[in-house]
Design a protein that fits this description.
Layout (H helix, E strand, L loop, with lengths): L1 H12 L1 H5 L9 H4 L4 H34 L7 H24 L6 H23 L5 H39 L1
């Protein structure tokens, strides 16, 4: 309480110093006039309308862009157009390699390995039906790699068999 009394006493002693300054002039008519609410409302309405319109245009273009890049139509994908042709090509390659392998006495585990690869390929074909359109190219690429690996593996086995049979025939001639 002592502080409050000291403040009051200070103000009373220096009252003249506080009253020496005049308040600035103020136009009281400004408060009596109604504000221009309509102009602000129109500006705000225009800004809201412009923002809504630009948002709608942005959403429209984004959705069009998303539809174009997502590859909704499986038939439009380049890989999907080539898939039947690639299947035929690699299937004929595998069939040719197998026909060539039949000339030799091969390990039965090779046929089991090829069967596992075929099973994996069937799984990929089933996955291709269920996967979203944007991921189909990835599955098709996995299928192509499976075919390529199958042909590569058969080529490697054939080359190895030919190499060993040639070495074997060379050994029999030299004896």
């Amino acid at each position: 309480m002592d502080r409050k009394d000291n403040l009051e006493e200070f103000i009373k002693k220096n009252r003249e110093a506080f009253d020496s300054e005049k308040a600035p002039e103020f136009d009281w008519e400004v408060l009596k006039k109604p504000k221009a609410k309509k102009a602000k409302f129109r500006t705000l309405k225009f800004i809201a309308l412009a923002a809504s319109l630009s948002l709608l245009v942005g959403i429209f273009f984004f959705s069009k862009q998303y539809q174009n890049t997502s590859g909704n139509d499986f038939a439009d994908s380049e890989l999907s157009k080539e898939l039947p042709e690639l299947k035929n090509y690699y299937s004929s390659q595998v069939a040719n390699k197998f026909a060539e392998l039949e000339k030799y006495n091969t390990d039965p585990s090779l046929a089991e390995d090829i069967k596992q690869m075929d099973d994996f390929l069937k799984d990929l074909e089933e996955e291709l039906k269920a996967v979203p359109p944007s991921k189909r190219d990835e599955v098709i690429e996995a299928m192509i790699k499976n075919y390529q690996y199958k042909v590569f593996m058969l080529d490697k086995v054939l080359n190895q068999i030919k190499k060993t049979s040639k070495e074997h025939s060379d050994d029999t001639i030299n004896i």
